[in-house]
Amino acid sequence: MSTVDTIEHQISDSDFDHFTESLEKWSGIVISRSKKYLVAHRLEDLMAENGCQTLRQLVAKAGEIRHALLRKKIVDAMTTNETSWFRDVYPFDTLKRKLFRKYEELNGDAPIRIWSAACSTGQEPYGISISFQQYLSLESKHNSSGIEIIATDISPTALAAARMGVYDNLSMSRGCKASFREMYFTTDKNNVSTVRPEIKSFVNFKPLNLMDSYQSLGIFDVIFLRYVLIYFSDEAKKDIIHRISRRLKPGGALFLGSTESLVRHSDEFEMVKDGAGLYYQRKELLAG
Ligand SMILES: C[S@@+](CC[C@H](N)C(=O)[O-])C[C@H]1O[C@@H](n2cnc3c(N)ncnc32)[C@H](O)[C@@H]1O
Q1: Ligand 1 pocket: which of 42, 85, 120, 260 to mutate (most atoms <8 Å of CB)?
Q2: pLDDT tens profile 77-129
Q3: How far is the CA of 82 from the centre of ligand 1 (A)?
Q4: How far is CA 196 from the centre of its chain?
Q5: What CATH number does domain 3-78 carry, 1.10.3470, 3.30.70, 1.10.155, 2.60.40?
Q6: How far apart are CA 82 and CA 255, in angstroms?
Q7: CATH top-level class for 90-282?
């Protein structure tokens, strides 16, 4: 038996429930009992490093005030950072064809503000920045008030990779066309590609737990909140969407993942169908 198998078999249902309740409190992430193996696999190293024989011991240690870093490491280990370039394609098309122009016209001299609210390793915010450059060249625009992209995530490991903006061939092959790779990245002899500084310069990365306040981020024209609500309870989803609606200008656009929906969670948005996809537009007047 491997160590992971041993750990998995030693986790009692009550220890597992205690762990999942703590994880949900720290991060909003909900894990079902069927995921014992995943938890054992992801926490194996942290348990060894911290001299913990059982999951309960690890949770007890992480619960101590002085072990805030351990809590962060546990949450980091339990995040799923799956992403790709131009995921679902249509949000980036909608920005280029319609929304960049709309918000530029509405904003006058102020830049368009976009928040990538669970940015993982950076493909989403860099994809938005690339789409903006594409928009400027398609429209032959020489004067633009520009764009400001705030990209946040709870995972320090994902954020560190995002800030570096360096991607191997496999990551690049997941959604990035050869022509974009040529134009917006530099690629070395090992086929490792680095995002060009002019694309990077529009993106500002920050750590943020979506369970915490986001008031200090300001107000946005567009928010990407994609493939993250799936990890939360219905109650947390509702609360996050409500607070996200307050970070959008009236008429601002919210993009979710193509398999996600606001139905049952909010009446603060109108669904707008656009080409092959859709987005949610914040209503002009909100109750409460
Ligand atoms: C599956 S990835 C999605 C990345 C990207 N939005 C996309 O659509 O490709 C989910 C991301 O949500 C982040 N995440 C999970 N819980 C979070 C929380 N409470 N606050 C902020 N980010 C969170 C994870 O770290 C992970 O990077």
Answers
A1: 120
A2: 999 999 999 999 999 999 999 999 999 999 999 999 999 999 999 999 999 99
A3: 8
A4: 21
A5: 1.10.155
A6: 17
A7: alpha beta
